[in-house]
Amino acid sequence: MKALITGCNGQLGRSLQATVPDGVTLVCVGSAELDLSQPDLIKPFVESVAPDIIINAAAYTAVDKAETDSDRAMAVNGTAVGALADAARSIGARFVHVSTDFVFDGGAGTPYAPDAPTSPLGVYGSTKLAGEQLAGTDSLIVRTAWVYAPVGGNFVHTMLRLMKERPEIRVVADQIGTPSYAPALASAIWKLVDVGATGIYHYTDSGAASWYDFAVAIYEEGRAAGLLDKDVTILPIATADYPTPARRPSYSVLDKGKTFAALGGPAPHWRTQLRQMIAGMQAASQ
């Protein structure tokens, strides 16, 4: 099987390459090879590669910037997704699209099922929802959240850096979701492909946390692993104390029951996955 992966230099793109199953030939592209903001380039490129499957791990992810850069966000997160899906259909290939918890408004008090009503709060979520709709029901859509990986810019690396630089940090405590370890997410996507899944699936690590909870865990695991060598005070704050251009859902825990049934079991807890990544960072630093 030949798989075309977009977003090859991102956290998930790298993880998809690292977890590729035996027998799969990869063609991995970034924006330099295929600019998704120019949808007219997509079909000819896909036809030249002739993949059996396309996994779209590329996205416009600058949530706050999207509020004033809506045209480019829609081009990448919406229009390009439709073009990729159409190109896949034209050559008989399968299409996989990665989406986000930001398609929900955060008003629920229980985890969001894949068929729960969507109501994005900002441009980023709206453009990602448009991408889902343009992908079509014959595609595999995997929604995820709070992605982090050993390589790339993410919350874990940002927190570790700030904890080394400052004696005190403040972290939002009233936004609840679940972290997603990119290598585990990538493995789950490959497994969903293998079982022929189509439609909408949710995948994150198991459990739930606030950003404050996640930051405290990063500190504790980082300190235990020797990546941090001093005490840091972590203070919980409200979203209102840290205003941003884009609104975030206050609760975006995803119901993964359907996905875990397809995979044959649940994902590890987010703290277990975080500990695994920290251990890898510790080993790399020695």
From TrEMBL:
<dbReference type="Pfam" id="PF04321">
    <property type="entry name" value="RmlD_sub_bind"/>
</dbReference>
<dbReference type="InterPro" id="IPR036291">
    <property type="entry name" value="NAD(P)-bd_dom_sf"/>
</dbReference>
<comment type="similarity">
    <text>Belongs to the dTDP-4-dehydrorhamnose reductase family.</text>
</comment>
<keyword id="KW-0560">Oxidoreductase</keyword>
<dbReference type="InterPro" id="IPR029903">
    <property type="entry name" value="RmlD-like-bd"/>
</dbReference>
<keyword id="KW-0521">NADP</keyword>
<comment type="pathway">
    <text>Carbohydrate biosynthesis; dTDP-L-rhamnose biosynthesis.</text>
</comment>
<dbReference type="InterPro" id="IPR005913">
    <property type="entry name" value="dTDP_dehydrorham_reduct"/>
</dbReference>
<dbReference type="GO" id="GO:0008831">
    <property type="term" value="F:dTDP-4-dehydrorhamnose reductase activity"/>
</dbReference>
<comment type="function">
    <text>Catalyzes the reduction of dTDP-6-deoxy-L-lyxo-4-hexulose to yield dTDP-L-rhamnose.</text>
</comment>
<feature type="domain" description="RmlD-like substrate binding">
    <location>
        <begin position="1"/>
        <end position="281"/>
    </location>
</feature>
<protein>
    <recommendedName>
        <fullName>dTDP-4-dehydrorhamnose reductase</fullName>
        <ecNumber>1.1.1.133</ecNumber>
    </recommendedName>
</protein>
